[in-house]
Here is the input.
Amino acid sequence: MSRIGKLPVTVPDGVKVTVEKSSFVVQGPKGTLTQVYEPQVKFEMEEGIIRVTRLNDSKRARAMHGLYRQLLQNMITGVSQGFSIALAINGVGYRAEAAGKSVRFNLGYSNPIEFVVPEDVDVAVEGPNKVVVSGIDKQKVGKIASEIRGLRPPEPYKGKGVKYETETIRRKVGKSGVK
Here is the structure.
């Protein structure tokens, strides 16, 4: 049995989960999310608890069991609390500034980079060296944060670039100058 899949999902107050034939919809105070699922799993709803079970023991059904349970848990957390990822910008002259529906990054290139933010994700610039990506969909928040980090990944010698706030950069020693 899947260790993740066998755990029950608790539905908090104010969140409504609707299971349809091939998808489930989660509605909450922050918004609505929809996920299509494969017919190898079944959702059993009780009062405030949802259990995900698989219909057979095939390899595909075992893989989908834990996946859809965790997707459901992430959707419930997203519509009730939301997700956020903080990014730190290190380097002389490296900074970010909000410009309407986009964010302008100065990351040591000859021209600034204009990053257009999708509508369902919020990007807040908290000071010139901190950017916070937030939203209700964990996958989209992670993808946007990864794209922003990819504009200038941190380098190991001086640590310059864009990194996750919780990330530690393994630093390398530079040239010693001794032969």
In short: The first strand starts at residue 9 and ends at 10. The chain has a mean pLDDT of 92. The chain has two domains: 9-80, 83-164. The chain has two helices and 13 strands.
